[in-house]
Amino acid sequence: MSSMTSLRPANMERSAGDEILSDYRQRRALEESERAERKRVDSAEQYSELNSADLRIRAWEKVHQLRMPSDPLHPALAAIATATQLTLEDVQNEQRLRIARRASGGV
Length: 107
Description:
Layout: H1 10-47, H2 53-64, H3 76-84, H4 88-103
Helix pairs in contact: 1-2, 2-3, 3-4
């Protein structure tokens, strides 16, 4: 009886497959950890007293993937003020500065 047998035992094939799966899981865990750290840093930038109002609001926009509304009476401005630990007046002032920059051709 002539049968071809694999040169690698079945347990080695399984261990290679397990190793690939383990590497994948470790890579995914590392990516998730890095993503959580970026989110933590981005969130902290929203209310850091070391950052200007502009930087705090930009951090808020980045975290929430939204732009600050241009309407000075928009209810989201109060939420931005709370999240950035700025006053509503600070947020509205930054809003006016952005509108003025856009009107003058700046970005």
